Amino acid sequence: MKRQRGFTLIEVLVALVIVAIALGAGIKAAGALTNNAERLAEVSAAQWCAENLLTELRLTQQFPDIGESPFSCEQLGRSYAGKLRVGPTPNPLFRRVDADIANEQGQPVLTLSTIMGKF
Protein backbone atom coordinates (compact mmCIF):
# COMPACT_ATOMS: atom_id res chain seq x y z
CA MET A 1 0.00 0.00 0.00
CA LYS A 2 1.35 3.39 -1.04
CA ARG A 3 1.31 6.21 1.54
CA GLN A 4 -0.17 9.52 0.35
CA ARG A 5 1.98 12.64 0.83
CA GLY A 6 0.59 16.12 1.48
CA PHE A 7 -0.81 18.37 4.16
CA THR A 8 -3.74 17.56 6.38
CA LEU A 9 -6.64 19.92 6.73
CA ILE A 10 -5.51 20.87 10.26
CA GLU A 11 -2.03 21.83 9.01
CA VAL A 12 -3.49 24.03 6.27
CA LEU A 13 -5.83 25.76 8.72
CA VAL A 14 -2.98 26.43 11.18
CA ALA A 15 -0.91 27.96 8.36
CA LEU A 16 -3.86 30.17 7.34
CA VAL A 17 -4.32 31.37 10.93
CA ILE A 18 -0.62 32.29 11.16
CA VAL A 19 -0.79 34.21 7.87
CA ALA A 20 -3.98 36.02 8.98
CA ILE A 21 -2.39 37.10 12.27
CA ALA A 22 0.72 38.37 10.47
CA LEU A 23 -1.38 40.34 7.96
CA GLY A 24 -3.49 41.82 10.76
CA ALA A 25 -0.37 43.00 12.59
CA GLY A 26 0.99 44.51 9.37
CA ILE A 27 -2.23 46.43 8.71
CA LYS A 28 -2.27 47.75 12.29
CA ALA A 29 1.35 48.93 11.96
CA ALA A 30 0.60 50.64 8.63
CA GLY A 31 -2.37 52.44 10.23
CA ALA A 32 -0.18 53.65 13.10
CA LEU A 33 2.40 54.99 10.62
CA THR A 34 -0.32 56.85 8.73
CA ASN A 35 -1.65 58.42 11.95
CA ASN A 36 1.86 59.44 13.00
CA ALA A 37 2.53 61.05 9.62
CA GLU A 38 -0.72 63.04 9.82
CA ARG A 39 0.10 64.17 13.38
CA LEU A 40 3.59 65.23 12.34
CA ALA A 41 2.20 67.30 9.46
CA GLU A 42 -0.30 68.97 11.81
CA VAL A 43 2.31 69.78 14.45
CA SER A 44 4.77 71.08 11.83
CA ALA A 45 2.17 73.41 10.32
CA ALA A 46 1.13 74.63 13.78
CA GLN A 47 4.78 75.29 14.64
CA TRP A 48 5.18 77.35 11.47
CA CYS A 49 2.16 79.43 12.52
CA ALA A 50 3.59 80.06 15.97
CA GLU A 51 7.08 80.81 14.67
CA ASN A 52 5.71 83.24 12.08
CA LEU A 53 3.77 85.13 14.76
CA LEU A 54 6.71 85.30 17.17
CA THR A 55 9.04 86.41 14.37
CA GLU A 56 6.58 89.12 13.41
CA LEU A 57 6.57 90.36 17.01
CA ARG A 58 10.38 90.49 17.07
CA LEU A 59 10.53 92.36 13.75
CA THR A 60 8.12 95.08 14.92
CA GLN A 61 10.59 95.81 17.74
CA GLN A 62 7.79 96.75 20.12
CA PHE A 63 7.68 95.61 23.72
CA PRO A 64 4.48 93.49 23.92
CA ASP A 65 1.77 94.42 26.42
CA ILE A 66 0.85 91.90 29.11
CA GLY A 67 -2.36 90.01 28.33
CA GLU A 68 -3.97 87.60 25.87
CA SER A 69 -5.04 88.08 22.28
CA PRO A 70 -6.47 85.64 19.73
CA PHE A 71 -5.03 85.10 16.26
CA SER A 72 -5.49 82.70 13.39
CA CYS A 73 -3.39 81.46 10.54
CA GLU A 74 -3.48 78.99 7.68
CA GLN A 75 -0.72 76.57 6.76
CA LEU A 76 -0.81 73.64 4.31
CA GLY A 77 -4.50 74.29 3.66
CA ARG A 78 -5.41 73.93 7.34
CA SER A 79 -6.77 76.65 9.59
CA TYR A 80 -5.39 77.10 13.08
CA ALA A 81 -6.73 79.22 15.91
CA GLY A 82 -4.27 80.57 18.39
CA LYS A 83 -3.96 82.56 21.55
CA LEU A 84 -0.99 84.81 22.22
CA ARG A 85 -0.26 85.10 25.95
CA VAL A 86 2.20 87.71 27.19
CA GLY A 87 3.26 87.57 30.82
CA PRO A 88 5.74 89.32 33.07
CA THR A 89 9.11 87.94 34.13
CA PRO A 90 11.14 88.71 37.26
CA ASN A 91 13.15 91.19 35.17
CA PRO A 92 10.86 94.05 34.04
CA LEU A 93 12.89 94.45 30.83
CA PHE A 94 11.72 91.03 29.59
CA ARG A 95 8.35 89.41 28.86
CA ARG A 96 7.41 85.78 28.38
CA VAL A 97 5.42 85.22 25.19
CA ASP A 98 3.48 81.98 24.60
CA ALA A 99 1.75 81.13 21.34
CA ASP A 100 -0.90 78.42 21.92
CA ILE A 101 -2.10 76.76 18.70
CA ALA A 102 -5.29 74.68 18.35
CA ASN A 103 -6.58 72.77 15.33
CA GLU A 104 -9.93 73.30 13.58
CA GLN A 105 -11.69 71.16 16.21
CA GLY A 106 -10.28 73.34 19.01
CA GLN A 107 -7.91 70.66 20.31
CA PRO A 108 -4.52 71.96 21.50
CA VAL A 109 -1.71 71.10 19.11
CA LEU A 110 1.31 73.07 20.26
CA THR A 111 2.58 75.79 22.58
CA LEU A 112 5.69 77.73 21.57
CA SER A 113 7.29 80.06 24.10
CA THR A 114 9.95 82.72 23.96
CA ILE A 115 11.31 85.63 25.96
CA MET A 116 11.28 89.10 24.44
CA GLY A 117 13.36 91.99 25.68
CA LYS A 118 12.72 95.69 25.61
CA PHE A 119 14.33 97.25 22.54
From TrEMBL:
Superkingdom of origin: Bacteria
Residue ranges constituting the Type II secretion system protein GspI C-terminal domain according to the UniProt record: 40-116
First-listed, main subcellular location of the protein, grouped into a coarse class: membrane
Annotated keywords: Cell inner membrane, Cell membrane, Membrane, Methylation, Transmembrane, Transmembrane helix
Compartment(s) where it occurs, according to its Swiss-Prot or TrEMBL record: Cell inner membrane
PTM statement from Swiss-Prot or TrEMBL: Cleaved by prepilin peptidase.
Alphabetical list of Pfam families matching this protein: N_methyl, T2SSI
Biological role stated in the UniProt entry: Component of the type II secretion system required for the energy-dependent secretion of extracellular factors such as proteases and toxins from the periplasm.
Entry similarity comment: Belongs to the GSP I family.
Identification of the protein by name: Type II secretion system protein I
Organism from which the protein derives: Pelomonas caseinilytica
Phylogenetic classification of the source organism: Bacteria, Pseudomonadati, Pseudomonadota, Betaproteobacteria, Burkholderiales
